[in-house]
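Is this the right way to post structure tokens for a design question? Let me know if I should format differently. Anyway, here goes:
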């Protein structure tokens, strides 16, 4: 396969809509959120509808589907509509901005825990009359990467303490929760317990799928210069798929994971792709955004 063919294959593969999304879920929403997260925040938290439609068209998505997906994001409170200088557009809602800001460190500056970090234990009790709070707590802890050690007892590496406290406070859930830090003292094999607390097989499958989809991208661009538009077409779907992984995996110590843990391979691949593609992808995105200003 020559270089041009390899790049075309990588582009076609990289531009796939998120096929891991459950049936019935908006599969374009995550791509749109990625675009807003990457490029709207540096543009005074606003993108015109025309620029979003064009950027999504560059990913192979037609305009009506994009408009419908943005409308769903608006109904969910993820974005809000706003006109600037007579142009229709959208801004990220404040809670979305806060969530993305918290996610930046986990996605781009992630530190894997070590045994010395110990453990974070969260226990909670929610009155039956406030069942929605119980659901919100479970959702929040799952999104933070916690595993379940027992009913109502959730555990994560100790280096997530500050992030966990901040997130639960921001979501109005602190009054239902106690948080403890410490070390596993006894009993049993901790490696076996980690496998029971987290679904490591599912996590390994997610990492394997990321590597399968995106290693050809790195191979295709390694020996040739891609255009900014091609970089954008490769980068946004890659980052969209990657964004969920640092939340599914809280960065467990390698000493407690199976030998040859493929998360390490996936992390290295992400870092290489991010370094290679982010700058030219941004160049293309800003050219489109400013062209529709």
């Amino acid at each position: 396969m020559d270089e041009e063919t390899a790049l075309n294959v990588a582009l076609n593969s990289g531009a796939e809509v998120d096929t891991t999304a459950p049936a019935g879920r908006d599969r374009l929403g995550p791509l749109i959120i990625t675009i807003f997260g990457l490029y709207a925040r540096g543009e005074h938290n606003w993108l015109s509808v025309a620029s979003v439609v064009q950027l999504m068209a560059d990913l192979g998505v037609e305009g009506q589907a994009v408009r419908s997906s943005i409308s769903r994001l608006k109904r969910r409170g993820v974005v809000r509509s706003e006109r600037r200088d007579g142009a229709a557009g959208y801004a990220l809602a404040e809670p979305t901005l806060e969530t993305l800001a918290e996610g930046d460190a986990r996605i781009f500056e992630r530190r894997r825990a070590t045994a010395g970090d110990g453990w974070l234990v969260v226990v909670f009790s929610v009155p039956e009359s406030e069942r929605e709070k119980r659901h919100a707590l479970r959702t929040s802890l799952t999104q933070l990467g916690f595993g379940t050690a027992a009913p109502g007892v959730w555990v994560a590496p100790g280096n997530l303490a500050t992030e966990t406290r901040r997130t639960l406070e921001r979501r109005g859930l602190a009054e239902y929760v106690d948080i403890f830090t410490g070390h596993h003292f006894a009993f049993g094999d901790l490696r076996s317990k980690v496998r029971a607390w987290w679904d490591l097989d599912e996590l390994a499958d997610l990492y394997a799928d990321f590597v399968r989809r995106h290693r050809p991208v790195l191979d295709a661009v390694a020996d040739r210069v891609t255009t900014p538009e091609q970089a954008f077409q490769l980068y946004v779907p890659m980052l969209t798929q990657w964004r969920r992984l640092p939340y599914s995996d809280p960065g467990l110590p390698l000493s407690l994971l199976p030998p040859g843990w493929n998360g390490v391979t996936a992390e290295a691949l992400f870092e290489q792709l991010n370094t290679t593609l982010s700058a030219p992808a941004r160049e293309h995105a800003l050219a489109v955004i400013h062209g529709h200003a």
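Format looks fine. Someone answered above. Worth noting: Residues 30 and 240 are 6 Å apart (CA to CA). The chain is about 55% helix and 10% strand.
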